[in-house]
C-alpha cells in the first residue's frame, strides 16, 4: 500500500499465498513464495501508478509476528517452511516449560505465557527436527527471523549484504526478549537451546537511523530508506492513532487482536492477557500494551468457505447469516489451534453446540460471526480486570470490518459503540506512519491524529438481558472445548 501525507491510499495491491497444512495442527507457509508475492505486489503498484523509488519518502514493513523462518544466510534458502503462529506442533515444548518452572521466568521476563503461539518453540523444533540445521546454526550459517526480518533481509540485498534486523515489537513475541532491557536474554535463549548468533539485531519500530535501503535491483527499482518495522497489531495501534494511555483497538483478520496502550509502564496481566511492547519511536522510551490474542476469527469464515463449502467467498457469510434473526441456539467455538487469550488452553479443540434438526447453514454462518464477537468480549472483560479501564467505544480495523452485520453483532455483544475509520487497513497505514515519522514526512503524532476520520459507527441494540444470556451460553460452549487433546 502507498499512502500520501493525508493518510489517503494512493495505490494498493494484494495477493494470497498458500496455506500449507501437512497434518492436523500444523500450519506452514513457503517463505520464498511470500518474498515473490511481496515483490509482485510492490512492482504492480509502482507500475500502475507510474511511481519510481524517488517518489517514495520511506518504506515500512508490517507482518504477522510469530511466524518463524530459519534460512541459510549464504544461499538464501530456507531450511524448512515457515512455521506459522497458528501451528500447534510445539505443544509438548510449551507444556514442559510450564511443568518445571521455566514458564514463570518467561512470564516475568518476556511478558508471555509458554505457548505454541510464539516463535522460540518453533525455532527449537526446527533445530531438533531438520537435519543439519543445528550444525549450521553453530557454524553461523543458519539464521532466524520472523517474516519482517526475512523480508527486510531480501529488500536490502539478501545474500549480497542484506541486513539481519527486527524491531522491538516483533522481538517481544518470541519468548526470547527481555521487556525491560529490550535485548535478547541469555537465560531465555538457554531454555530453547537457540544460539544467540542466529538472532537479528533489535531496533526501534520507527528508526531515523534506518534499517537499511532497498537495493537498485529489487522490486522498488532503486534506493528507498527502510525506516519502520512493526508487528501487525502494533502497526494497527499506530494507524488507529492510539498514542494515549488507555486507548484501545481491535483488529479483525485471520485472528483477532485487541491492544490497550498502557504508556511507559509494564502492566503484568493477572487475567490471561499478554504484556507486549506497543511501539518504540527512535530514542524515545518504549510504550507498552496489554494484548488479547485470539487465534481463529476471520479464518473461521475461511473454514466455512474452504473446508465446508457452505459459502463461495467471505463476503457471502454476511448475506447467509442475515437470512436468520439469530443463531437458532447454535454456538461455534473455533478452537482449531487451542484457545488463546484469556484461556491459553492448547488442549482445546473446536466445537459446534446447540444443534437441532431446525438449524441450517445460515445459523452456522451467524454463529461464526457471533464467535468472532464473543471471543473479543472475553478479551475486553480481561482488560477491564487488569487495567480498570472499561471501553467507551471500540475502534476496529482489518478485513472482517467490511462485514457490517458482524460489526453490529460486536456492538450488541459488547454493549458499546463500534467505530471503524475511513482507512480500515490500519496495519499498513501504521507502518507508513512509523516510516514517515522517522524521516520527517510527518512532524509528530499530533499530525497523524488529524488524519483519523470515522467512516461508520454501530450502536448496540440488544437488551442487557439478551446480552447476558448470550454471553453465559457462550461461556458454557467454551467449557465444551476443553480437555479434548491430551498434552503430555
Any overview of this molecule?
The protein has 488 residues and is an alpha+beta fold. It has helices at 31-48, 91-99, 102-110, 119-129, 133-139, 147-155, 168-171, 186-192, 232-239, 298-308, 316-321, 361-387, 404-414, 426-439, 445-449, 464-479; strands at residues 2-3, 9-11, 28-29, 59-63, 68-72, 82-83, 142-146, 165-167, 177-178, 183-184, 201-203, 212-213, 225-231, 248-252, 256-263, 274-279, 287-294, 331-333, 351-353, 394-397, 418-421, 454-458. The strands form eight sheets. Strands 16-17-15-14-20-21-22 form a seven-stranded mixed sheet. Strands 4-13-12 form a three-stranded mixed sheet, sandwiched between helices. The chain has a two-stranded antiparallel ribbon with strand order 1-2. The longest helix is centred in the last third of the chain and has 27 residues, at 361-387.
Helices and strands in order, then pairings?
Layout lengths: L1 E2 L5 E3 L16 E2 L1 H18 L10 E5 L4 E5 L9 E2 L7 H9 L2 H9 L8 H11 L3 H7 L2 E5 H9 L9 E3 H4 L5 E2 L4 E2 L1 H7 L8 E3 L8 E2 L11 E7 H8 L8 E5 L3 E8 L10 E6 L7 E8 L3 H11 L7 H6 L9 E3 L17 E3 L7 H27 L6 E4 L6 H11 L3 E4 L4 H14 L5 H5 L4 E5 L5 H16 L9
Amino acid at each position: 500500500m502507498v499512502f500520501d501525507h493525508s493518510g489517503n491510499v494512493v495505490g494498493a495491491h494484494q495477493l494470497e499465498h498458500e496455506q500449507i497444512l501437512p497434518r492436523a495442527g500444523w500450519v506452514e507457509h513457503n517463505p520464498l513464495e511470500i518474498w515473490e508475492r511481496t515483490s509482485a505486489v510492490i512492482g504492480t503498484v509502482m507500475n500502475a501508478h507510474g511511481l519510481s523509488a524517488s517518489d517514495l519518502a520511506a518504506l515500512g514493513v508490517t507482518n504477522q509476528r510469530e511466524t518463524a523462518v530459519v534460512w541459510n544466510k549464504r544461499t538464501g534458502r530456507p531450511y524448512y517452511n515457515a512455521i506459522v503462529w497458528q501451528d500447534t506442533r510445539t505443544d509438548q515444548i510449551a507444556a514442559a516449560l510450564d511443568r518445571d518452572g521455566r514458564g514463570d521466568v518467561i512470564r516475568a521476563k518476556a511478558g508471555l505465557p509458554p505457548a505454541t503461539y510464539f516463535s522460540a518453540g518453533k525455532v527449537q523444533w526446527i533445530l531438533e527436527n531438520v537435519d543439519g540445521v543445528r550444525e549450521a546454526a553453530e557454524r553461523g550459517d543458519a539464521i532466524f527471523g520472523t517474516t519482517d526480518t526475512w523480508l527486510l533481509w531480501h529488500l536490502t540485498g539478501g545474500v549480497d549484504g542484506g541486513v539481519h534486523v527486527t524491531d522491538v515489537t516483533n522481538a517481544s513475541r518470541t519468548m526470547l526478549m527481555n521487556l525491560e532491557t529490550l535485548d535478547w536474554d541469555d537465560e531465555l535463549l538457554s531454555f530453547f537451546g537457540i544460539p544467540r548468533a542466529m538472532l537479528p539485531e533489535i531496533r526501534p519500530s520507527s528508526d531515523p537511523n534506518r534499517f537499511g535501503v532497498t537495493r537498485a535491483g529489487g522490486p522498488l527499482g532503486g534506493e528507498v530508506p527502510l525506516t519502520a518495522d512493526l508487528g501487525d497489531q502494533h502497526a494497527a495501534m499506530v494507524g488507529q492513532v492510539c498514542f494515549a494511555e488507555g486507548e484501545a483497538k481491535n483488529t479483525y483478520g485471520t485472528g483477532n487482536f485487541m491492544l490497550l496502550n498502557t504508556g511507559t509502564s509494564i502492566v503484568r496481566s493477572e487475567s490471561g492477557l499478554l504484556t507486549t511492547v506497543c511501539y518504540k519511536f527512535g530514542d524515545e522510551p518504549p510504550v507498552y500494551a496489554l494484548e488479547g490474542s485470539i487465534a481463529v476469527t476471520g479464518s473461521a469464515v475461511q473454514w466455512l468457505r474452504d473446508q465446508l463449502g457452505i459459502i463461495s467467498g467471505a463476503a457471502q457469510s454476511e448475506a447467509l447469516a442475515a437470512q436468520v434473526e439469530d443463531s437458532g441456539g447454535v454456538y461455534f467455538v473455533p478452537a482449531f489451534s487451542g484457545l488463546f487469550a484469556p484461556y491459553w488452553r492448547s488442549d482445546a479443540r473446536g466445537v459446534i453446540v446447540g444443534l437441532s434438526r431446525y438449524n441450517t447453514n445460515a445459523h452456522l454462518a451467524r454463529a461464526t460471526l457471533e464467535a468472532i464477537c464473543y471471543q473479543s468480549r472475553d478479551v475486553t472483560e480481561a482488560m477491564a480486570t487488569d487495567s480498570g479501564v472499561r471501553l467507551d467505544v471500540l475502534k476496529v480495523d482489518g478485513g472482517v470490518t467490511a462485514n457490517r452485520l458482524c460489526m453490529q453483532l460486536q456492538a450488541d455483544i459488547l454493549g458499546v459503540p463500534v467505530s471503524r475509520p475511513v482507512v480500515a487497513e490500519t496495519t499498513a497505514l501504521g507502518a507508513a506512519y512509523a516510516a514517515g515519522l522517522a524521516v520527517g514526512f510527518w512532524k509528530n503524532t499530533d499530525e497523524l491524529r488529524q488524519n483519523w476520520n470515522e467512516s461508520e459507527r454501530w450502536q448496540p441494540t440488544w437488551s442487557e438481558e439478551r446480552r447476558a444470556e448470550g454471553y453465559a451460553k457462550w461461556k458454557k460452549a467454551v467449557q465444551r472445548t476443553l480437555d479434548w487433546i491430551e498434552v503430555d
